[in-house]
Amino acid sequence: VLVKAVHWLFPDFAFMWLVDEAKKNMPLELDFLNEGHNAEKVANMLSHFPFLKVPMICWDLSTKRILTMEFLEGGQVNDREYMKKHCINVNEISENLGKMYSEMIFVHGFVHCDPHPGNVLVRKCPLSQKTEIVLLDHGLYQVTNLQAARTQTKPCLL
C-alpha cells in the first residue's frame, strides 16, 4: 500500500516491480516443504561436487511451517578470520563457489536467490578435513528457460 501511495504521488517512482515480486515470492519463501524439496533438488543436481554440502532434510519432522534438517557447523563465507583459524584456502573457496553457481545458472537454470554470507558457510569436513561449502536457505530459486535461450542464441562470427 505504501509503495502504491508513493507511486501515485511520484509517478516516476519505479519500484512497483518490487511489490509484484514480493507477492509472488513470499508464499514460496514461507513454504518449508518447498524449501526442503529445493534443498534436495540442489543436493542431487550438484552431488558430483565433493566440496558442496546441503543439509539433509528430516521429512518425518517437517511440515509446511516447520523445516527440520541436519545441523552443520561452519563460518560465514566472508569471515576471513574464521578461514585463517581453520586453515581454509580463500582461493579454493572462491573457485568452488564459481563452479557451483556457474553450473546452477548456466547448466541447470536453477538459481539460488539468496546467496548472502549468512546462507553460505565454509568448514573443514570433520571426517576428511577437506574444505566444504555449506549451502543454506533453499526457499527461493529462479528457474530460467535455458532451452529457449540456447535456440535463440546466434553464433558469434569474427
From TrEMBL:
Keywords: Kinase, Transferase. Residues 2-145 form the ABC1 atypical kinase-like domain. SUPFAM superfamilies: Protein kinase-like (PK-like). GO terms for molecular function: kinase activity. The keyword Ribonucleoprotein does not apply. Belongs to the protein kinase superfamily. ADCK protein kinase family. Appears to be essential for maintaining mitochondrial cristae formation and mitochondrial function by acting via YME1L1 in a kinase-independent manner to regulate essential mitochondrial structural proteins OPA1 and IMMT. The action of this enzyme is not yet clear. It is not known if it has protein kinase activity and what type of substrate it would phosphorylate (Ser, Thr or Tyr). This is AarF domain-containing protein kinase 1.
